[in-house]
Specification:
The protein is of the alpha/beta class. It is built from 16 helices and 8 strands. It has 3 domains: about 80 residues, no CATH class; about 180 residues, Nucleotidyltransferase, domain 5; about 80 residues. Strands 1, 4, 5, 6, 7 and 8 form a 6-stranded mixed beta sheet that branches. Strands 2-3 form a two-stranded antiparallel ribbon. The protein starts with a helix and ends with a helix.
């Protein structure tokens, strides 16, 4: 017998009203209302195109994706005319869904799949094509190189049209929580023990199947074998990554024997997070031009030190487009090697002086220190915070706080989706860039 709120709700479902207004107040007639009636069958004649307005963001995203070079994605489609098999989902639909979802702050394939059946904008993007979360999840991480090329191609068009210049580029890192537990990190002796246990488990399952194939259902046997194999592969990956962790520990003047690697995600590393705590994470690096705030470079590392990311990012942007005149970073990027590499390619590094490298006799360092004492350099450096910190804030607002994916390549793909979505948002809000 339902009681309390449950009983009250059931009563309302039965008579369709709350009892209010059944009798007049102080002799007055009961109010006449238009009440909700959800059991009435309706026939609605409308198309998917009528679900959203003509200027809806989903339509704009679809138009932008129509200008992408989708040929590399179409080349990977297995289903072909004249060959038996079920047709695959149009890559244009999947790209549009993930870009719109990223702008909407949706980062889960399961959540996106639900929205494709419940939300008008996502239904319009699907265009009547059914989508499952497996397809969405696989597509999201399978095309990182294409996303990188498309990001560079779209920027190259704007640079060629002289709507964007790389006079000044700012770089900063974003710590993103990894899908590895803090207790999953193990040192070398324990990893070797876990490897032996994993091998033993795989051998045990094989022996059980050979001894009595009918002892368990085939589905259960397959699930156990798959779990044991995946566990073995994760431990092997952790042992393979241990050497790099030990080398980094030694380079930082620590004890290599104390180096630890996660058995959940071998490429994740414990880093200092913005709140001051230490957790498994990845270091997502963004570089953005300061005129419009467009992202021009994306990289993901498992090093908590930003110094290691300065030269690779500068090299990436210079190779893809042109050598920026000015490169703006915070004090965490300052090192003698980094300054000499950036200045050697023709960029002027702008970073706070502090006490770093005050005693290093190097022409590049001398030029940097002299430059940063001028008013012009100080004025230019103010553009760093208002550009790259804002880019990072947009990424966090859109959900780039933690990832449920494992490995540098998959995290890089997610970061590239965010960069491409960010640039699309900027272009749609800037008439001059839209015209280009």
């Amino acid at each position: 017998m339902a009681s309390g709120w449950e009983g009250w709700i059931m009563a309302q479902d039965q008579d369709g009203s709350s009892g209010q207004g059944e009798a007049g107040l102080a002799g007055r007639p009961a109010p006449r209302l238009r009440q909700a009636e959800r059991r009435q069958t309706e026939l609605r004649a409308m198309s998917l195109d009528e679900l959203i307005s003509d200027d809806h963001l989903a339509r704009l995203v679809w138009q932008v994706v129509g200008r992408f070079d989708l040929a590399p994605l179409l080349d990977k489609v297995v289903a072909r005319e004249g060959v038996a098999g079920h047709p695959q989902t149009d890559p244009k639909i999947l790209v549009s869904l993930w870009l719109y979802a990223t702008l909407d702050g949706v980062g889960s394939a399961r959540a996106l799949a639900r929205l494709c059946t419940q939300h008008h904008a996502y239904q319009w993007l699907c265009g009547g094509v059914s989508i499952n979360y497996h397809t969405l999840s696989d597509f999201r991480v399978a095309h990182a190189d294409w996303l990188d090329r498309e990001l560079a191609r779209s920027l190259a068009g704007l640079i060629e049209a002289k709507q964007v210049s790389l006079a000044s580029v700012a770089q900063d890192g974003l710590r993103v929580r990894a899908a590895a537990g803090g207790g999953s990190f193990r040192r070398a002796p324990r990893l070797k023990e876990l490897l032996a246990l994993a091998h033993a488990r795989v051998a045990q399952l094989k022996a059980e199947v050979q001894a009595d194939p009918a002892a368990q259902s085939k589905r259960r046997q397959a699930a156990q074998a798959r779990a044991a194999k995946e566990r073995l592969e994760r431990v092997q990956a952790a042992l393979a990554a241990l050497a790099a962790a030990q080398e980094r520990k030694q380079r930082n003047k620590g004890d290599p024997a104390q180096a630890r690697v996660s058995t959940t995600d071998a490429e994740a590393r414990v880093m200092r997070m913005p709140d001051g705590g230490f957790r498994p994470a990845f270091n997502v690096q963004f570089a953005a031009e300061t005129e419009h705030g467009l992202v021009v470079g994306v990289a993901v590392t498992n090093s908590g030190a930003d110094q290691d990311a300065l030269d690779p990012m500068h090299q990436q942007v210079s190779a893809a487009h042109q050598v920026p005149a000015n490169w703006l970073v915070d004090g965490g990027y300052v090192s003698q090697a980094g300054i000499e590499q950036v200045e050697g390619r023709g960029s002027r590094l702008h970073a706070p002086l502090g006490k770093a490298l005050a005693d290093r006799p190097s022409p590049a360092i001398g030029d940097w220190r002299a430059r940063m004492q001028t008013d012009a350099a100080k004025t230019l450096y103010r553009q760093r915070g208002q550009t790259i910190e804002w880019v990072n804030a947009c990424a966090r607002r859109q959900g780039l706080v933690g990832v449920k994916l494992r490995g540098l390549n998959k995290v890089r793909a997610v970061a590239l989706w965010h960069a491409l979505a960010h640039n699309i948002g900027r272009i749609l809000r800037t008439p001059a860039l839209q015209a280009a």
